[in-house]
Write a structure and sequence with these properties.
about 425 residues; 3 domains; two-stranded antiparallel sheet; 9 strands
């Protein structure tokens, strides 16, 4: 049906008033007016035109001030803006069983260090923004979204993006049922109809030509599934409390993949840049997560992490290390590995992966200046090697002595038997 030219301001205002009666505490959006207009008047009007018409009437959607409400001069300013407090839903939501498995548990966020950045992310989500968390690897930019979902006790879905990813591939697929082809909703479509967090990780990996599906998702908060409703097509409205976020590593000398997203996408988002952890934060994380790790070892592992980062940076080595690799070193060590092996397997041998054995030797030298146990292990190794050499020499001497004695006895026997 083509857009109507006969929709009057009165018709639009009537639809708005009916929606306000039906949803007295909610913000009325353009798509609701569009649906109400079609239902009541049989007329079609696109959402941008609806928003423009209300603005021209001085009644912008979401920002209408009733005529009876007096406008008070706010000066002098008596207080600053109060922070938004985000609380878990007071009414427990009964999720479908298949979505309950996506709700993060305490085990999922064990050892996570809550920071001011997490409170900022809560504010972004509370204001219906679509935050992009960005920064180097291992700074918590992905984990922060999961921690938010844990605090709210809502499902969390992480979608790892890739170059030729097409969003509608996640909507679902066709299947056979009783001899008929039906559409089966994907997890993404089910998730977006409930309070939840959907995070698109490494969003800058997606080709910009394939990013347009995200525009409709963010602008209209809806998914159009062509195969839905038995092939007739179906529009799924995104739940008001479904949070959609993104994470990315901005391009640099160490992160050469991905694309720079266009303004048409970035303009629909908000942004939080996650810096590297401070030394104090790294120490707190290790103490919180690994209670069996002694204080002196916490300090040594923390110092090594920062000295290793400085070594790689000073030598222009295009590889990054993160708290994930440091945690691997600690876990290997607590599992009973020799400290040297734990450091190599958890972090240092990453330099073998980029074919730089010389830098690997240099990084281990850095470790030896920090970890006292490494020098002890080295001395013990030298003692063991020395003992092995002495034992081998003694065995060789005993063998030679026995052999000489054998030869002497043989010679004596031969001499006695001579004519």
């Amino acid at each position: 049906m083509p857009p109507s030219k006969t929709v009057t301001d009165e018709m639009l205002c009537k639809c708005l008033e009916e929606l306000r009666l039906a949803f007295p505490t909610g913000i009325i959006r353009a798509w609701q007016v569009k649906d109400q207009l079609l239902k009541e008047c049989g007329e079609v009007m696109d959402e941008s035109t609806i928003r423009g018409r209300f603005i021209s009437m001085g009644k912008p959607l979401g920002g209408v001030i009733p005529v009876s409400t007096p406008i008070v001069d706010p000066s002098p300013i008596q207080s600053v803006l109060k922070p938004i407090v985000v609380e878990a839903p007071k009414v427990k939501i009964e999720y479908p069983d298949e979505l309950k498995a996506f709700i993060p548990t305490e085990a999922d966020v064990a050892g996570y260090l809550e920071r001011d950045l997490d409170k900022r992310l809560e504010t972004h989500y509370a204001l219906d923004k679509h935050p992009i968390t960005q920064g180097p690897q291992g700074t918590g930019k992905t984990f922060s979204h999961m921690f938010y979902a844990f605090k709210q006790q809502i499902p969390f879905m992480l979608i790892s993006c890739y170059q030729d990813m097409v969003l509608h591939k996640f909507f679902g697929d066709k299947t056979l049922k009783d001899g008929s082809i039906i559409f089966r909703e994907g997890v993404l479509v089910k998730m977006c109809q409930w309070p939840s967090v959907i995070l698109f990780d490494e969003i800058n990996a997606v080709d910009n030509a394939k990013s347009y599906d995200f525009h409709a998702l963010l602008q209209n908060r809806e998914l159009f599934v062509k195969d839905g409703d038995d092939g007739k097509g179906k529009i799924y409205k995104i739940h008001n409390d479904c949070r959609i976020g993104f994470a990315q590593n901005p391009r640099s000398a160490k992160y050469i993949g991905g694309t720079v997203k266009p303004s048409s996408f970035l303009g629909r988002c908000s942004y939080i840049t996650f810096p590297n952890f401070s030394k104090d934060e790294i120490s707190k994380i290790l103490k919180k997560k690994y209670t069996a790790l002694k204080d002196d070892k916490v300090m040594e592992f923390t110092d090594f992490f920062f000295e290793a980062s400085a070594y790689l940076s000073q030598n222009s080595i295009a590889v990054d290390i993160s708290i994930r690799q440091l945690e691997s070193c600690v876990e290997f060590f607590l599992a009973g590995m020799k400290l040297e092996d734990a450091l190599h397997d958890g972090m240092i041998s990453v330099l073998d992966s980029i074919s730089n054995p010389t830098a690997k030797d240099g990084l281990f030298s850095v470790a030896r200046t920090i970890f006292k146990d490494l020098n002890q292990e080295s001395k013990q190794g030298e003692k063991i090697d020395s003992l092995k050499e002495k034992l081998a020499s003694q065995i060789s001497a005993d063998i030679l002595k026995a052999a000489a004695a054998g030869f002497g006895q043989a010679a004596s026997t031969l001499g006695q038997g001579a004519p």
